[in-house]
Design a protein that fits this description.
The protein has 28 helices and ten strands. With 579 residues, the protein is α/β, with parallel strands linked by helices. It folds into three domains: 149 residues, no CATH class; 146 residues, no CATH class; 228 residues, Restriction Endonuclease (3-Layer(aba) Sandwich). The strands form three sheets. The chain has a five-stranded mixed beta sheet. A three-stranded antiparallel beta sheet has the order 3-5-4, with helices on both faces.
């Protein structure tokens, strides 16, 4: 996972007073600024050559600005030496600043603004604007966090430190493109298949296909892939453009673009997420965010369906569309289908639908192989922008508790639901499995989440702490909890992406759950082998122990040399391209 320090304004210009973004971006025409903004967003999130400070400065500044760039580098070296870090631990590009820069340009720079600055001034001022945003993202945020910490008097655990530092931007910087695309495509197909089976959704689907000018979801996804294909195939770090040879596709793409009458800075980049490209000439488009372009396939699908659903007549409108997606689709159909495909007809299994018919408050999925039992709770939830971006850790912690522990009305959520189902198993009260071996049974509690934001370092440790505290109450009531394992958060993309490995039986889910908890959740630096050779190495080993399950499993499967293009992806894509 990526942990780097941002290069800030004060590090580059220690004697300058910061001005406003409007000051720095004045005197430069809007189209040039938008192109620069999308250029910053075109850098690779992994192994970018511009992660190196020197390479970035050499790329960004022209030869005529060499003296200016040299002064910036000297100032940065001085700042770094005083901070006690190596310059290799710093980088200039930061996706949060890139998104905010593009948003500001799109929302605030007039199309009438003309260029009055020289090329040298443009380079210098755009750079100042960028590191100004880094200053806001890193230094200013850090000052606000410190103030909140002093007010709260919280004594932070290492897991909490990592979570409060990285949760707000984790999903923007930690992802792999192949996994992201595979899962977005497969989830979109699955969602369309689900909706197609429901009678009340037919008017919505019909209106959706009519609006986008397609006959069915296969044609819709095929044409949508025409937008994402340039992102997947790009071979250089810069902005990505789409130039249409056939203008027949223009109307389709225009319905997915950010137009000049829309404001980009909605809830947590919501508009950019749903419309991550813009049109700069007839038949020519520029990708704003490669990440959001890929996530538009599935993550943006609900919002596009919702917009059309709201325009339907009352007798055709799908009531409870959000609940249909988060509960009936995500927590039942999607999870049931996925786990049934992973396990086939092996073991003792009960799907969410079957469990609901047997008893109230049952898990969302249940599987047992002899004495090994996995209890699944599924949560298609999000964390609000306010909590996600808050500099007060208590705000984030409290919302996470409401979503994963207990809500404001005292209703049990994932953690407490799992503990209650464990209590029933240990007491022989679980009607869905009367043969559970109470004395020998090993129980693995799992929470399946449906968004990558929950793959943040430290989060699993914190949620597992809540779980362990609840388990202690069962122990106090006389129940033997010695064979109850740690709670593990798994995002559904990780199960989808590694499904073939789990199907193969070369990898058993309970085995990797056990390995993860022993190697990560229960990591003890005093027992680490090999022993850390320095304090710095020890700190890095401790940080690594807080990696999410997704990071652990992806690497493990990679080392087993499984094909990272699942057969299912090829099978589901085939109908999109009939001969």
């Amino acid at each position: 996972m990526k942990f780097k320090l941002g290069v800030t304004f004060e590090a580059c210009f220690p004697k300058e007073e910061r001005k406003t973004l409007s000051d720095y971006l004045s005197g430069i025409q809007r189209e040039d600024l938008l192109k620069m903004g999308s250029y910053f967003l075109g850098f690779n999130n992994e192994k970018s050559q511009y992660s190196d400070v020197t390479d970035f400065l050499n790329m960004f500044f022209s030869a005529d600005n060499k003296d200016f760039a040299t002064d910036v580098y000297k100032n940065l070296k001085t700042f770094v030496s005083q901070a006690g870090y190596g310059i290799e631990q710093y980088e200039i590009p930061y996706v949060g600043s890139s998104l905010l820069l593009f948003e500001f340009i799109f929302d605030n720079i007039s199309e009438e603004q003309q260029t009055t600055k020289s090329n040298l001034e443009i380079e210098q001022d755009v750079f100042r604007a960028y590191v100004h945003l880094n200053q806001v993202a890193f230094t200013d945020r850090g000052i606000a966090e410190k103030k909140s910490d002093e007010e709260s008097d919280i004594v932070y655990t290492p897991a909490q430190v990592l979570l409060k530092t990285h949760f707000h931007n984790n999903e923007l910087i930690n992802y792999r493109v192949d996994k992201l695309f595979t899962c977005q495509f497969l989830r979109a197909v699955s969602y369309f298949e689900f909706l197609s089976q429901i009678d009340k959704c037919q008017p919505l689907l019909k209106a959706f296909y009519k609006y986008y000018g397609v006959k069915d979801y296969n044609e819709y996804l095929r044409r949508l892939l025409g937008i994402t294909y340039p992102v997947l195939m790009k071979d250089k770090e810069s902005h990505t453009e789409i130039h249409l040879d056939n203008l027949d596709n223009e109307d389709f793409i225009d319905k997915h673009i950010l137009s000049s009458n829309e404001v980009a800075s909605e809830l947590d980049f919501l508009t950019l997420r749903s419309k991550p490209l813009y049109k700069f000439e007839k038949g020519k488009y520029r990708i704003i965010s490669p990440l959001f372009t890929i996530e538009m396939i599935y993550n943006g699908l609900y919002f596009r369906l919702k917009a059309i659903n709201e325009k339907l007549s009352e007798d055709e409108k799908v009531s409870g569309l959000y609940g249909l997606k988060t509960y009936e689709y995500s927590e039942q159909y999607a999870l049931d289908t996925l786990l049934q495909e992973i396990y086939g007809k092996r073991y003792y299994q009960k799907s969410g639908k079957e469990l609901d018919e047997i008893m109230q408050g049952a898990p969302d999925y249940y599987v047992r192989n002899g004495k090994h039992t996995i209890i699944f709770e599924s949560k298609d939830i999000l964390i609000s922008k306010e909590s996600k971006q808050s500099t007060d850790f208590r705000v984030l912690r409290d919302e996470l508790k409401l979503k994963l522990y207990e809500n404001e009305k005292g209703k049990s959520k994932a953690v407490k639901q799992l503990v209650e189902n464990i209590r029933k198993l240990l007491n022989g009260e679980a009607d869905y499995d009367k043969n559970f071996p109470v004395k020998k049974g090993t129980i693995f509690p799992v929470v399946v989440v449906h968004y990558r934001m929950f793959n943040a370092a430290g989060l699993n440790n914190i949620v597992n702490g809540w779980f362990r505290n609840e388990l202690e109450q069962l122990k106090e009531k006389g129940l033997d909890i010695s064979k109850v394992q740690d709670l593990i958060l798994i995002d559904i993309d990780t199960l989808i992406f590694n499904k073939e490995a789990l199907q193969s039986r070369k990898l058993q889910l309970w085995d990797v759950l056990m390995e993860y908890q022993e190697t990560y959740l229960r990591f003890d630096i005093s027992k680490a082998r090999p022993r850390p050779r320095s304090e710095e190495e020890g700190i890095e080993m401790l940080k690594s122990s807080f990696h999410p399950f997704s990071f652990f499993l992806d690497i493990k499967v990679e080392k087993m040399k499984f094909d990272r293009t699942p057969k299912e992806l090829l099978e589901k894509a085939a109908p999109l391209f009939p001969e």
